Amino acid sequence: MPDVNSLVNEFLIKLKKRKIEGSKATAKLTAELLRSFISQKRLPHTNQAGALIDAVKAVGEELINANPVELAVGNIVRRVLHIIREEDLSLTTAAVGGLSLSAESDNEDDVDQGDHPALSAAAVAAAARSTLRPPSLQTLLEDMPHSTAVPQTSSSGGDSEGKSKSADKNLMTRKLKHNVIEAVNELIQDISTCHELIAEQAVEHIHQNEVILTLGSSRTVTEFLCAAKEKKRSFRVFVAEGAPRYQGHALAKELAARGLQTTVITDSAVFAMISRVNMVIVGAHAVMANGGVIAPVGLNMVALAAQRHAVPFVVLAGVHKLCPLYPHNPEVLLNELKSPSELLDFGEFSDCLDFGCGSGSPLLHVVNPAFDYVPPNLVSLFITDTGGHNPSYMYRLLTDYYSPDDLVVRRRSTS
Amino acid sequence: MDARRVPRTVTDPKVRQVGFFAPVAPLDGSPSGPLRPTTPSPPVSGNSLSPVMIPLPRHLSSDNAPLSPLNAGGGDSFLPVGSYNPSEFSSPTATEDFSEDNFSKDTGWILNDNSGKIATSLTPGGADKAAVKQNTHSASGLTPGITDGGPPTEVQKEQAPVSSMPLKEKTTKAERRALQEAQRAAKASATAGGSKKSVAASAVVTSANANPKKVAKAPPQKKDSSSVAASEKRAGDRQTDKDRKKDVPHPRMQFDDEDRVEKAKKRSVVKQTEARNRVELFRHLPQYEHGTRLADLESKFFQLDPVHPAVYKVGLRFLSGDISGGNARCIAMLQAFQESIKDYSTRLEKTLIEKWDLPAKINGYVSFLIECRPLSISMGNAIRFLKTQIAELPLTMSESEAKASLLSDINRFINEKIILADKVIVRHAVTKIRDGDVLLTYGSSSVVEMIFLCAHELGKQFQVVIVDSRPKHEGKMLLRRLVGKGVSCTYTHINAISYIMHEVTRVFLGASSVLSNGTVYSRVGTASVAMVAHQFHVPVLVCCEAYKFHKRVQLDSICFNELGDPDAIARVSGKEDINYLDDWTSSENLQLLNLTYDATPSDYTSMIITEYGMIPPTSVPVIVQEYGGEHLWI
Question: How far apart are CA B576 and CA B556, in angstroms?
């Protein structure tokens, strides 16, 4: 499968060179890449799920390292891993629930591969069943009698094991792969339609004559505001231009074209204007597990100003932006310094840029960070495709999308 | 100020000391003595300065009383006209001997680097001695600097643009064409017989001369602010107050009041076209087209008799943005007034009682300046000072005496309230800079720059973070000057303030004004910087001369502000690919808002450094109360 490798390499280079930016684009491309990777991956007959997870982890690690700041890549890798695990489990449960024979055989593989060969196959099956099912009162109660019944099932199915094994294997492999790819397709679908789902909630949050402030530009925010406008809400938007990329200009133009009263302000005027603003609605780069936001630079200032004037600070984020990691020193570690040329013309300051005064260190530094970290206490509300959430709920929301085993995407060291 | 308050007596020069103070001799009034640290040591030792020293107002001035603008050779007391370089005044090594080459360097304070040359040529004898200036003045009624070699007397209209060309840094083709069109139109109307403009202009002159009642009322403050002044005012002046209030563009005129706007428009010298796509929230502020005004005003240069050429020139430079910054604008304005006072003469060479219409003239100038650019609060204070001085002249004084007295008053104001105040502020502030500090500043403040340079020359090891913002990018100029002096600098934009604030140990900010509720009224963005600094527990030090204090209070940045040119937002310098807003006026839903100032709440300010000492923002009303009338008294 050289084509997949070349695809991966190409994507890696693009990530490294920052040719692909923006969480949505990267998320989508990552998911598509992983889909083709999975579809071409040949799986061994035994323990396909484990092998697949390892393979995806290997690729995922490379992808994440290519641009560690682009958290969406890691998010998608983890979600794909989670999908694989889930599909594997659902297949297993189906097998356990339906055909005891196949379940038996399947579980035997697990035992072979696992570190505990001493455990009987039946015990593993029981354990698997109890973990797979949602924890209801019934399963808890059923648990005890089930384990006592184990020896009988295992003994009864013992003779027919050999015959059905190989046929089952092929079916299982194909089925797992097929299901995983289906699920990844769904994921891609989700990513591309997330802003529609978010925009649908616009009318619930924007009322008549509202004054909304936003900074920079985000597709999600644009759609959100336009959706409210289409629902006949009339409101006013202040757009801070968002130095150094000035995407606010484009946003303002689009909003004005859609018939919204739009006012462009400089970033420095945010504090002056925020006292007349009812709500701040912004996009995010990533949402961390503690509810903190990695956002385009400048938003921490806006959030502080909003807090000062008790203006709700609403962050729109698709689910692919939820990152299961907790940030540590995110201003530095999850940040990226861009080219100084966005702020200063090299030619203009060429005489000052030299190493000055014989001390060996340059006199002039230019700092141009790409992101800001907005701590969770400054965020009033997250609006995701699944609805509105508090920052304090983020850690819980994540468990729907990620499995705790994947938080650190690292190949298991082959000792 | 309470009108009934007994005016402060001038007899006892006692010094009141407030707050912590060391038993050291307080600031004495001599301008050069304490401000000439020949060794770097005195300012460093924090003990030598008491945090708050409030000398009695009269005290400072008494020593400097015999200052005259005419004795040009007066050493350090002489004020260079038009050129004021903060670094030379502030540096500890600078001596009191301000030699010629110091003066001839027209950088820093007033002028941007790139416009330096132009400005020098414009300044009326900018670097020259006052005597020279006087000569040129008496030669022609027109302005000396502008008509370099031009005919000094009546000039044809064709020559107007030529001589006024150096006012603009660059004249684009379109602008030139617009200018020509304007001239052609003016010519046509002139040849049509009874050119309206000239008629109107002369009408203004006659009316201004005949009765001073009809002339603009200038200062933004209430009239009754000085009790003594009021009592000594001529009876006629009293009557005028009502009239003025009625029909004059008050600096805080509410522009959503259509009647008044209409009236003001009829009077105005500058042709103001209302901007399209006005921002609804700011209808109470003037929103005019910016592009057309400069060219229009330039073309009218020789038709405007009521406005003195020096004032006219300063107005043009305000309009073009050539002079910016509170102190620079204030000094430029006062110097223009000096010129106009020198040229002023009553018809009959008698005592002041007859035909004394100087206040009316000044009012006219002020309203002209307001049309060019709204006055800053500091300028309002300076004008109030000048008017009080005029009002207090004894009626028996002869004209020449009165003029001399006024000129020296203005000189003293500039010297003490701005230049010396800055030096004292620098001395105070330098004690707050320690080795290893990372100092952040926003935009470009002249006094903050002086502080940095002074600390650098004292050998302190520190780094400067310059935070800048669109659209003016004033920080770039500051960056260039500081790096040129060898100060290690970091440059960033205002959005990155949260990122950089982690490393900062102190924030130094300048201010356009400090209001009496402690609100700092300054360049837009200052509030954001102060807020983030407050969040990160970094001390915020606001450096502001006390003449900029004002007793007004303000809670937000919207009720009173100044709107800049919206087109400046649409263009992003150096990025031609960002051109979404090129035709922004075509969409009526789209507005661009270019705010100039914002109000920083007082709880973000740790300390305000004034010449009276380092005070908390809660003490601002004290200063305003105690010294609010002082600049009327120096």
Answer: 35
Measured between CB atoms, does B477 come within 8 Å of chain A?
no
For residues B629 and B225, the answer to whether their CB atoms sit within 8 Å is yes
Query: What are the angstrom distances between the C-alpha of A261 and each of A222, A280, B278, B282, B561?
Result: 14, 16, 12, 15, 22
Q: Is the pLDDT of residue B91 over 90?
A: no
Helix ranges (H only) for B393-492 are 399-412, 421-430, 446-457, 474-484
Measured on CA atoms in the order A296, A298, A302, A304, is the torsion positive or negative?
positive
C-beta separation of A203 from A227 below 8 A: yes
Rounded CA-CA distance B188/B195 in Å is 9
- B357: phi then psi, degrees, rounded to nearest 5: -120, 25
Q: How far is A299 from chain B (nearest CA, A)?
A: 8
Give pLDDT, residue B418. 92
> What does the pLDDT average to over A90-107?
63
Residue B232 has a pLDDT of 41
On whether any CB of chain B is under 8 Å from the CB of A354, the answer is: no
Q: Compare CB distances from A266 to B556, B569, B581 and report the shortest one's residue.
A: B569
Q: Which residues of A64-88 are buried (b: 16+ CB within 10 A; e: fewer)?
A: bebbebbbbbbbbbbbbbbbbbebb
CB contact under 8 A, B489 and A269: no
- Please compute the mean of the pLDDT values over residues A158-162 and round it to a whole number: 47
Q: Which residue has the higher pLDDT, B236 or A27?
A: A27
Taking CB atoms and an 8 Å cutoff, what residues of chain A touch B595? 265-266, 268-269, 272-273
Contact B493 A264 (CB under 8 A): no
∠ Cα B69 B149 B320 (to 5°): 70
B85, B427 Cβ separation under 8 angstroms: no
Sign of the alpha-carbon dihedral angle for A109, A114, A115, A118: negative
The answer to whether B599 contacts chain A (CB < 8 Å) is yes
Q: Do A256 and B587 count as a contact with CB atoms less than 8 A apart?
A: yes
Q: Among residues 535-594 of chain B, which lie with CB inside 8 Å of chain A?
A: 535, 556-558, 561, 569-570, 572, 574-575, 578, 580-581, 584, 587, 589-594
Half-sphere exposure of B514 (CA within 13 A, CB side): 30
Mutate to test the interface with A, among B485, B491, B495 (most CBs of A within 10 A): B495
Cβ neighbours around B483 below 10 Å, total: 22
Write out pLDDT tens, residues B318-338: 888 888 888 999 999 999 999
Please list, in sequence order, all residues whose beta carbon lies within 8 angstroms of the beta carbon of residue A400, skipping any fewer than 6 positions away. none
- Smallest Cα distance from A352 to chain B, Å: 7
Give the residue from B493, B557, B563, B598 with the most A CB atoms within 10 Å of its CB, the best one to mutate. Answer: B493
Phi, psi angles (nearest 5°) of residue A111: -65, -40
Whole-number Å distance between alpha carbons of A254 and B385: 51
Question: Are B214 and B243 a contacting pair, CB within 8 Å?
Answer: yes
> Phi/psi of residue B216, each to 5°?
-60, 145
Question: Is the Cβ pair A271, B488 closer than 8 Å?
Answer: no
- For residues B351-372, b (16+ Cβ closer than 10 Å) or e, as one string? bbeeebbbbbbbbbbbbbbbbb
The answer to whether the CB atoms of A301 and B494 lie below 8 A apart is: yes
Q: Catalogue the E-assigned strands of A133-240.
A: 211-215, 236-240
Tell me the pTM: 0.73
Helix (H, G, I), strand (E, B) or coil at B274: strand
Cα(A181)–Cα(A194) distance, integer angstroms: 19
How many angstroms away from the CA of B294 is the closest CA of chain A? 24
ipTM, 2 dp: 0.83
Contact B572 A267 (CB under 8 A): no
Flag whether residue A209 sits within 8 Å of chain B, measured between CB atoms. no
pLDDT of residue B473: 87
To which H or E segment does residue B54 belong?
A: strand B53-55
